[in-house]
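Researcher: Let's continue the batch. This sequence belongs to Methylmalonyl Co-A mutase-associated GTPase MeaB, and it's 318 residues. Same format as the previous ones, please.
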Amino acid sequence: MADVAALVARAREGAPRAVARLISLVEGASPQLREAMAAIAPHCGNAYVVGLTGSPGVGKSTTTSALVSAYRAQGRRVGVLAVDPSSPFSGGALLGDRVRMGEHASDPGVYIRSMATRGHLGGLAWAAPQAIRVLDAAGCDVVLVETVGVGQSEVEIAAQADTSVVLLAPGMGDGIQAAKAGILEIGDVYVVNKADRDGADATVRELNHMLGLGEARQPGDWRPPVVKTVAARAEGVDEMVAALDKHRGWMEERGVLAERRAARAAKEIETIAVTTLRRRIGELRGGKRLDALAERVVGGTLDPYTAADELVEGVTEG
Ligand SMILES: Nc1nc2c(ncn2[C@@H]2O[C@H](COP(=O)(O)OP(=O)(O)OP(=O)(O)O)[C@@H](O)[C@H]2O)c(=O)[nH]1
Ligand SMILES: [Mg+2]
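Model: Same format as before. Here are the structure tokens for Methylmalonyl Co-A mutase-associated GTPase MeaB:
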């Protein structure tokens, strides 16, 4: 068993191994997590969280790595969390990231960590915010969260970031795919990466057009910019950083940052509560209480609603 207080103290001093151990507690849904989160809580709230999502291979890791360099040049401490919602193991699919981000491996101002969330109760929604908290408490000014866009995960990551970046690459029908996947609603900043390839300008135009179609925008509302990058050559990265800074400034001015963070915390609490309830109900399954209720419902002496009420009461009693 880890000495949680000592771990948190070392993580706050910036010890990478302590940070890694704490994130492992998150990944493993450790019983010590509660204690760790309590110790971390007073030290959170400084980090600016940027989510990066997009289809496999679009250039998320390369872009993330280039962003890390840009933020490091500004003297900011950076955390990178690569979340793989499709895998129950970290390491595997994300191994390539270690290569792509290798240049930052020896920089004490950068933490890079991959995390697998499949098989977790609550999945991404449960684990990512807690890992972000760890990086926040460890003194990261910026936390970059990379998630592969598979189904629901884009939307989930958007709910967890202060600013959401959606990456696309040039290609036939990209815009249509974007619309289909619902990503036109979630991006605060859009990046057309691989702009060294044919069709980048057309993709930018198409995206701008589609983003402009969402009419109900008031003066002063945020209009998501579309930035063109060649991440592999760090081109367009300064423009991307400028777009992120601008969005952050806009959010602070409008009170949106505080709103988003409150919504995120509410969602986090809800997820933990639901996960706890689900676990307790699971513990009841096969237990006497649920069996007895089921028998009465089958026998007609109890309706399923009242039975469910009784079950919920039993579960919330502790
Ligand atoms: N031509 C070109 N290739 C790029 C660019 N950016 C990244 N790549 C290449 O695209 C491939 C995928 O890049 P990654 O950064 O791993 O993409 P990713 O979105 O993180 O991929 P997954 O995490 O597997 O979904 C790599 O071979 C990169 O070198 C770019 O701007 N232009
Ligand atoms: Mg990647």
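Researcher: Any comment?
Model: Confidence is low (pLDDT under 50) at residues 91-96.
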